[in-house]
Amino acid sequence: MPHSPLSVGQVAKRCGVKVSTLHFYEQKELIHSVRNGGNQRRYKPETLRRVSVIKAAQRLGITLDEIKQALAGLPDNRTPNPADWAGLSTQWHQLLNDRIRRLENLRDSLSNCIGCGCLSFTKCPLYNKDDYLADGGNSGAVLLERKNNQT
User: Fold this and answer.
1) Taking the domains of the chain in order of start, what are their residue ranges?
2) Percent of the chain, pLDDT > 70?
3) Which of 1, 94, 137, 141 gives the lowest tally of CB atoms within 10 Å of its CB?
């Protein structure tokens, strides 16, 4: 016997999110609903798992755009199964490792500046003598990012 479609309130309650969150996810094309005769949203039961995957990914720091891109790669826009989750988690594991590396580089680059805050050390990667980057609409943080990308 097929499962009955769920109302937005039922999905919100079972997933522990607000109704507005589901509306937002739908606006961002992360989940999908159909309308019944009374023009009310109805969700397939698989939406519960999809929302759970979205919430788990967000807790890991994965952006909604990254989640959308990953879910769009699933055949027929289906809900992730265990094999799909293994693939997604591997992909996100690498993404998180890259972020951690960038944050560690940022932390290590800032250690000399944090003490006094003057940003005037000649070895400081944020140093921007005479604000020469202003003409390009950039700030000193660009220097830091460039340095980190070269490591």
Assistant:
1) 1-80
2) 70
3) 1
The CATH class that applies to domain 1-80 reads mainly alpha
Q: What is the pLDDT of residue 65?
A: 94
Asked if 5 contacts 16 with a C-beta cutoff of 8 angstroms, the reply is no
Written as one string, the DSSP assignment of 97-133 is HHHHHHHHHHHHHHHHHHTT-----TT-TT--GGGTT
What is the rounded CA–CA span in Å between residue 58 and residue 12? 17
The pTM of the full predicted model, rounded to 2 decimals, is: 0.67
Cα separation of 148 and 106, whole Å?
7
Q: In sequence order, what are the beta bridge partners of 34?
A: 42
Those residues whose C-beta lies under 8 Å from the C-beta of residue 99, and which sit 6 or more positions away, are 61
In terms of Cβ atoms closer than 10 Å to its own Cβ (0-12, 13-18, 19+), residue 31 is: buried
Q: What is the CA radius of gyration of the chain?
A: 22
Crossing angle between the packed helical segments 82-114 and 64-72, to the nearest 10 degrees: 150
How would you classify the pairing of strands 6-7 and 34-35? unpaired
Cα distances (Å, whole numbers) of residue 146 to 54, 103, 143, 151: 32, 13, 5, 9
